[in-house]
Write a structure and sequence with these properties.
The complex is a heterodimer of chains A (304) and B (129).
Chain A: E1 3-13, H1 16-26, E2 30-35, E3 38-42, E4 52-56, E5 60-68, H2 71-84, E6 88-91, E7 102-106, E8 112-116, E9 145-153, H3 156-167, E10 170-176, E11 185-191, E12 199-203, E13 208-215, H4 219-231, E14 236-242, E15 248-254, E16 260-266, E17 277-279, H5 284-288, H6 297-301
Parallel strand pairs in A: 1-4, 5-8, 9-12, 10-17, 13-16
Antiparallel strand pairs in A: 1-5, 2-3, 3-4, 6-7, 7-8, 9-13, 10-11, 11-12, 14-15, 15-16
Helix pairs in contact in A: 2-3
Chain B: E1 3-7, E2 11-14, H1 21-27, E3 30-31, E4 45-50, E5 53-55, H2 66-70, E6 73-75, E7 79-81, E8 85-88, E9 95-96, H3 99-121
Classes of the chains: A alpha/beta (304), B alpha+beta (129).
The structure holds FE2/S2 (inorganic) cluster.
Residues 34-37, 39-44, 75, 77 of chain B line the site of FE2/S2 (inorganic) cluster.
Chain lengths: 304, 129
């Protein structure tokens, strides 16, 4: 395993004060650093210095950080990315606070990825010595961790190949134009672990963010999150509902700048030898919103 | 207080001071396609045919281009009218989804109009009162 997980999502926000209120008080993230126009957060069950970075000025994605297991993985990914035809630059320790040396490149989908191995260890909020099940004084939804993200790209098939070749990811589910071998990929859900997806790519404009998601334990927590969103006047996009694709339980909502967030729970365990689920466009409504079984146009066109 | 007229149906909606166009439409019982309701996704744009408005938040360059700041494009979820405005939706119509809200909004508008007429008769402007 080279890439272990989506380490951080770095997004732009139009108003830092409002964004801080959302991510700290509604989502329950812990602020670990505030520096200039940026604020860094971690969730309670994460141990590295940060998983969410907010930067004032605009909206949408700045970049993702991907944490690898061994420092040698960085060189390997660099070689594979170059072989794929991507220009890779070196990134040095401290370019991102509390993050070590690594590489940076722009993917064929025009998203910026950073690959790193070292991050300052803060530790989870319950510690490692006889830890309790959760921190007693969680704020708001109290999300335990960043989970995955969905981006758009003009050629999701190319991103599927890129993530396979460079990251060693495999697809757990795909939406294809048909069931034929030469069908085009409309969307792909990719991982390299038993996590059902770490990054999904949907056909759409280059370089855009559809959402980034936080993990929750079960339906009850997803329902409670939706309740809190109403209390805090957070615009809910969809849910609570289930996805046909991944089987996850979900609420989609927007941060105060209009970046889409998700809380996600459930889904099944992924394995590389598990037969991939394939969806066709006629079943896409059910695939995305299992209960309503109808796709709304805003779900695929509302992006930041 | 400003009103929003929807072209071409001619519906007139009364806004509270400082209220955004989108919030005014909602509070008058209307709906149309929106996304984030937070100025980030650009889907709520309509065309402003007359009147003045400003934005209650900084709007990202990726959401509104320089041209769109000048050509009457109105990001309804962040636009607060300074004067009465007339808007035209892009490719769709507003849907009345709550008739009770619509009734209440209409009464508020009639009251505001009656007050304005009374002030005119008395020869005063709101500022002089
Ligand atoms: S609804 Fe997203 S910008 Fe207005």
């Amino acid at each position: 395993m080279a890439v272990m997980r989506l380490g951080y999502a770095h997004v732009r926000v139009t108003d830092l004060a409002e964004a801080k209120d959302h991510y700290a008080n509604t989502m329950g993230l812990y602020e670990t650093l505030s520096e200039g126009n940026k604020v860094y957060y971690k969730a309670w069950d994460e141990w590295d210095h940060h998983s969410v970075v907010l930067e004032e000025g605009g909206v949408g994605l700045v970049k993702y950080g991907w944490k690898v297991q061994y420092s040698s993985d960085i060189d390997e990914i660099e070689k594979k990315a170059q072989t794929f035809g991507v220009t890779v630059e070196r990134m040095s320790k401290g370019e991102n606070p509390e993050i070590g040396d690594g590489i940076r490149f722009t993917t064929p989908s025009d998203h910026v990825f950073e690959i790193y191995h070292e991050a300052t260890l803060i530790g989870t909020e319950v510690g490692t010595h006889n830890p309790d099940a959760f921190p007693r004084h969680l704020v708001g939804v109290g999300v335990p961790a960043l989970d995955h993200s969905l981006i758009t790209a003009e050629d999701p098939g190319m991103m599927d190949r890129f993530l396979s070749d460079v990251f060693g990811f495999y697809a757990t589910e795909r939406v294809q134009t048909s069931l034929d071998d030469d069908a085009d990929i409309i969307a792909t859900w990719m991982t390299n672990s038993i996590q059902i997806h770490q990054l999904a790519v949907l056909a759409g404009p280059q370089g855009k963010l559809h959402h980034f998601a936080f993990r929750l334990a079960d339906w009850t927590e997803v329902g409670r999150a939706a309740d809190l969103f109403s209390m805090d006047d957070v615009p809910i996009d969809i849910g609570p509902t289930r996805h046909g694709i991944t089987r996850g339980q979900t609420v989609y909502f927007f941060d105060p700048s209009g970046n889409r967030n998700e809380v996600f729970s459930g889904g099944y365990l992924a394995y590389p030898d598990r037969p991939m689920h394939v969806w066709t466009p006629d079943a896409l409504g059910k695939g995305v919103f299992y209960h309503a079984r109808e796709l709304n146009d805003a779900f695929t066109s509302v992006l930041t | 207080m400003p009103t929003v007229t929807i072209h071409p149906t001619g519906e007139v909606i009364y806004l509270e001071p400082g209220e955004t166009v989108l919030s005014g439409l909602y509070k008058a019982g209307f709906a149309y396609t929106v996304g984030c309701r937070r100025g980030g996704c650009a889907i709520c744009k309509v065309d402003c045919r007359s009147g003045q408005f400003r934005y209650d938040h900084p709007v990202a360059d990726t959401v509104l281009t320089e041209d769109e700041h000048l050509d009457g494009t109105c990001l309804t979820c962040r636009a607060v009218p300074d004067t009465d405005i007339t808007i035209e939706l892009r490719g769709e119509n507003v849907r009345l989804v709550n008739t009770f809200l619509h009734m209440i909004n209409d009464k508020a508008r009639q009251r505001a109009e009656a007050n304005a007429a009374a002030r005119l008769m008395a020869g005063t402007t709101p500022k002089e009162q």
